[in-house]
# Entry
Amino acid sequence: MIWLCFFWFSLLYGCTFFASPSKDVFSPLRFISIKFAVFNLPFIFFTALYPHSFLKGILTVCHTDVYTAFYNYTLLQTLAYVSLVGGILLFKPKTGVTQNSPASFNPHRVLWITVCLFAVAMAGYVFFLARIGGLGYLLTHLKDRVSLQGGQYSLILLELFPLVLLFVLLLSRYYGKVVKKYFFLLLCLFFLVYTSFGGRKPAMIVAFAGLGGWHYYVEKIRVNKNTVLAGIIACALLVSYIIAIPILRGGNQKLIAADKNPGYTVSKNFLYNFSYVFIDVFAANYFNNSNAWHMEGYFAPAGAFMYKGDKGGIPQVDQGVYFKSIYLQQKDFRPPMPRNSVCKTSWPTENFGFAYANFLCIGVVVFFFLQGVVFSGAYKLFQKQYFNPVMLLFYLQVLVQFNFSSLRIAFFLKTLPLYCLCWFVFNKFALHKNQK
# Structure
């Protein structure tokens, strides 16, 4: 059954990619086919080779076996993917992005905006370090990274780092190769800044934003020998990075040298840190009519900022803590619950876990369809404002991170005012009047 699941999704994702009316690799249909293939297929393939590798705690709490679990997952994930494709096709975005002339913006003003954004973002990082005791303290207390970042509102300014990269790439259309050198220097700097927090996803987001900006503002990414070689090198670096970050955080890692099968151990640790398939399998087999959440506690964390005193009595924004608590404690947890009653870490629910945990099959159809509508709508907005890096970043963020889980909605509500301000500044001071 697991092999059938692998071949079925390989066919489904491949057909979506080649049937896409747009040849733009970052168009919604092509991108989701690549994204689902990259994040889902390696995990399913590994589990098909080693069925015993799948987490026993999930099978126990769901009262099922690995083959039945993947059968249910295959049915629901297919329903989710088809609904997502349907939502994208509803808007029927254009087959490609229409490129305006570089003369549509004032490069000197864009340069000043870029310098100001960089200064503001770095100031937010420096202010955070000053409040907690410096970079050395942060690096030696990465186990407590969640509590260290709690209430540090200056960290929202770090969301400007990907935008700075896009502005630099936009300037390369006017200033040429000189600016590209600064792009790579800034990319390395921002990557190190995000890595200092002990997290993986923010650093990968900034790298992805750089890749998207290069594709739209410098040179189209096409499949050839050079891009295949670059992709292989990038995958090797990505695997090394994902494995290295937990070691940097000081987690309890197995000594690979002492393992009888180090290749198996490294592969399993990497896949469980990279893919969310096991979380989706858990959701698909655990929830039913008797324990579905029906949006209970979804809006409870909204008033957390008004709560005075100990925050331990209010619910977590990330409802993935309930998923992780169910797995660890082998008993039911459901929102809303005080954060001191659940585990501190989470299994990200993402769109699949959120939709099925709350409304089962109907939720999967509705929320994946709406997610597709959002993807397609964001692409159309970007097409209309091609030379506005804020719109490009917004579109890329939507592609990578947007879903209806509580954590992702909170992220977009938190960053939207910042992006709106940057959009206003660019349109007001950088675009020529006939382009506004």
Notes: Residues 288 and 360 are 7 Å apart (CA to CA). The first helix runs from residue 2 to 19.
